[in-house]
Amino acid sequence: MKAGQWNGSTKSIELNNVPVPEPAEGQFLIKMHSASLCHSDLMPEGRPDAPTTMGHEGVGFVEAIHPSAAGKGFVVGDAVGFLPFLDACFACDACHVHNLRCEQGTTKLQGTFHAVTGCELVPGAWLAVVGCGGLGQYATQFAKAMSYKVVGVDIQDDVLAAVTALGADAVINTRTTTAANVDEAIHTLTAKGVHATAVFSAATAAYETAITLLRPGGLLMVVGITDTPLPVTAMDLCTGRYRLKAENTGTARRLPPVLAFAAQHRIQPAVDVRTLEDLPSMVEAMRQGQATRRQVVLF
Questions:
Q1: Which pTM does this prediction carry?
Q2: In whole angstroms, what is the distance from residue 3 CA to residue 16 CA?
Q3: Superfamily name and number for 112-246
Q4: Helix or strand or coil: residue 12?
């Protein structure tokens, strides 16, 4: 079968023929139907164990079941979605915190629902969604369904148009708006600043902007993973300038309320359907910040 892989030796994305794996003990074999490109798919570039297959956000159908995994409520042909965790046991103390921390796993790393609910807002409160690509568009839908007011913040007009169409109450392009005018716009909208900012961008500059949008005591929700340290200081935290929380990929135990809420409120993903052969151009679009919607490979 074909796989889109990052090759560390050539520093390039390749379409390679790889063997179809056999399910090991406790495993299912899933025939992929589709998979979306995530910013964390770019992270294997620095890993020594390349080539690494990309596309950890997938759905598909059960193709085969190892005898040891039979009788667990699944049969061949079932449609399934799954978390991108490799060898997480889902039972140890660390897994109860986050499957990423599994004591025996080798997991890798995004999440929007719990990032929004974790902002501890009440209906009518202001949430700044910083980074309005695929995840930011999900977050906007969730936030509006929870009766929050949303200001979308990005450097691209097309993604700001997307969150406007999804119900954002206001948008700000920080590339074309001066810092002084951003501050004026936020205070005109909210009087004192937003109650929380949720950052879905991996750019350090996005966090720098997010902090300036907050009212005193507001909450900074960390989701996007940057390559450099965050511009957060102990003094700001200790003196209550803002509070700090973080969210990322949800655990299996937290998925049911997400799915139920999405179904109830008809949360719809905005996607561009592509082919596996498009993977190099998809990655380049993400690197350049030109991906305005979730990019999905249909197999």
A1: 0.71
A2: 5
A3: NAD(P)-binding Rossmann-like Domain (3.40.50.720)
A4: strand
